[in-house]
Amino acid sequence: MQQKIQIDKNGYYGQFGGAYIPEMLYPNVAQLQKEYLSIMEDPSFKKEFDFLLKDYVGRPSPLYLAERLSAQIGTEIYLKREDLNHTGAHKINNAIGQVLLAQRLGKKRIIAETGAGQHGVATATVCALKGLECIVYMGEVDIERQAPNVARMKMLGAKVIPAKSGSKTLKDATNEAIRDWINNPTDTHYVIGSVVGPHPYPDMVARFQSIISEEIRWQLKEKTGHELPTHVIACVGGGSNAAGTFYHFLNESTVELIAVEAAGLGIHSGHSAATTTLGTPGVLHGSKSIVMQTPDGQVVEPHSISAGLDYPGIGPLHAHLFASGRGRFLSATDDQALKAAFNLTRLEGIIPALESAHALSGLEQVDFPKGSRVVICLSGRGDKDMDTYMKHMADFE
Amino acid sequence: MSRIEQLFDKSKQASKKVLNVYCTAGYPELNSTLDVMEALESNGADLIELGMPYSDPLADGEVIQQSGAVALDNGMTISVLFDQLKDFRQKISVPVVLMGYMNPVLQYGFENFCKKAAEVGIDGLILPDLPPMEFEQEYSLILKKYTLDFIFLVTPETAPDRIEQLDRLSSGFLYAVSSSSTTGHDKDFSEVEKYLSRLQGYQLQNPVLVGFGIKDKASFDRTTKYTDGAIIGSAYIKALGGQKGKTAITTATQSFLDTVL
Ligand SMILES: Cc1ncc(COP(=O)(O)O)c(C=O)c1O
User: Is the pTM above the cut of 0.90?
Assistant: First the structure.
C-alpha cells in the first residue's frame, strides 16, 4: 500500500519541508502556522475567496478537449485553461487567497517575489483591488526579459525593486523579499508565489491552488463520465501549478502525476534548472527540499529560457513525490519547450506561456496506453513571452 | 570549563564588557582569514565570530553579503577553511565561533562538520536558520558529543516563553539581535535599550551579547550597559574594505578597534 501523501504537523512531507528560518522571521511565520487553516476555513473568508475566484478571475477555468492535439499525440488530451484566468495564469488563485488572509491578519503592506512577473502582476492586481501597498522584488535579468509584466505591475501601482545579487533571477528576488520581511516585521505580509518557503507556505499555497484539480474532477466527470484522469501533467518551477493540478489526485493511485522541469540548454549542459535530476537534499528559502548546489553547498545559478522555471529548488511536496516515486519527473529543454509552444499555437490557436510549454513538451516523452485521459495544466498565456517567441519564429516556419 | 565560559567569568570579575567581532572567512583575500583573526585578537577583540560565506545569506545586509560574495569568488569553501584553521590555536587563544547557514553545513555533513570544527579548536556554532525543534530532534546530541556550544538568536519580537526556551537550548552565550532586521542596519537605540533592559529581567542561564547595528564606541557603550557584551559585524567588514596583505589588514583593524575600545 502506498503511504498517504500529506503534510505532517511539523510541516514535513516525508523528510522534506520544515521552517528553516532565522529567528527574526519566527513571529510572522508562527502566526501563519497557527492561523492559516482556521482563517481559510472561516465561512466569511471562503465566501469572499469563492466570489472573487468566480466573478473576478472568471473561474471555473475551462477544461478543453484539444482535438487536433489529441489526434497528433494519439490519445485524449484535455487542457486545463488557467491561461484564461484574469491576469493570465494560475498565480492569481494564490495571490487572492494570501491577500485576503493578510487582511485578516491585519497586515497593511504586501511584498512578493516574481520570476516571470505573473505572480508579481497577480499580487499587484489584488493589492490594487484591495487598496494595499505592494512591493515586488524581481531579478534584474527577469525585469528585462519580461518587460510587459513589469509595465503592468507599475500601472497597477506596485513598486518593482530589482534584485541585483547573484544570478539576478527568481532565487535572488526571493532572498530580497525575505530580507524585506525581516526588516519589516509587524505590518507586512510576504505573498510567496509558489509552494516553496517555510511551513506553512507550501501547504497554504497548494491549498489555494487546489481549486485546479477540484475543478478538473467534476469537469472531467461531466465530459467523460470519469472523475479521474489517467495522467495529469504540469510544469514545475517552484511547483504551485503542479501542486494545484495534483492536489486532489495525490492519493488516487491510478492517476499518474507527471511533473516537467526546465532542462535549459540540456540537463548536463551546466545551464539547466532540472532540479530533481541535478539537485541533492538541502535547505533553500526556509525549507528542506531538493536543491541545485555545488559539493560545497553553495546554491547554483540555474538557467531556463522561461523566467518562471528559472529556480534552483522545488517545493518540498514535489521533493517528496520525487523521492517516494509517487511522481514522475521529466524535463524539457529550451528548444523542446519552444517547439511545443509553436505546435500548440498552430494546432489549437492557443499561445501558451513558456512555462506551460514545458508541460506540453512532456506529451512527447510519455507512451500513453490506449484509452488514456490526459489532463495538462496550461498554467499561463504567452503574451509576456512574445519577444522570445518572435526571436525564434524563423525556426518554426 | 570551556573557553567561552572562562572568557565570561574573567570579564565579569574585571567588570569588563566582551567585544565579539565578526569577520568573513576568505575575506578580503582567500588567505587573509588568519591574519584578520590575529589582528582582531592583538587589538582587543575578546571573541571572534568567523562567518562561513554562503550564496544565499538571508539574515545578512549588503555589507556582509558582499564580503561573502568576494570570499566565495576567492575560492573559500568549508574544506578550505578547515585547512586554514588546522593550526590556528598555535596563534590565537580567544574563543572562536563559526557562523553560517544550514545548507553548506548539511552538505558537508553535520556530524563531520562538528568533528572537524572541534578538532581544529573551534568553540561554538551559530546557524541562524536552524530552528529549535530540528535542533533538539537531530543535532543537539552531536554538538554535545563534540563539546561545541550552540548559540541561538532572540529578537525584540521573541515571546517570553520562547526566550526562555532558546536560552535553555543555548550554551556559551545568547545572541540578542538588537532589532528585527538584517545585519548592518542603523538603529533607534532608545528602542534597543528598552528591549535590552527587558531582557535583563529574565533569569537567563547564558550571558547575553547584543548584535546588529553596533558600530562604534557610542553604540557599544550604550547597549552593553544592559548586556555582557556586544558583537560588531558590518562596521568592521566595511573598515576592512578592500585591504590587501597582512600589514594593511592589521593597520585597518587596529584603527577600527581603537575607535570602539
Ligand atoms: C505561467 C506560469 N506557469 C508556471 C510557473 C511556474 O511556477 P509554479 O511551478 O509555482 O507553478 C510560472 C511562474 O512564474 C508561470 O508564470
Answer: yes
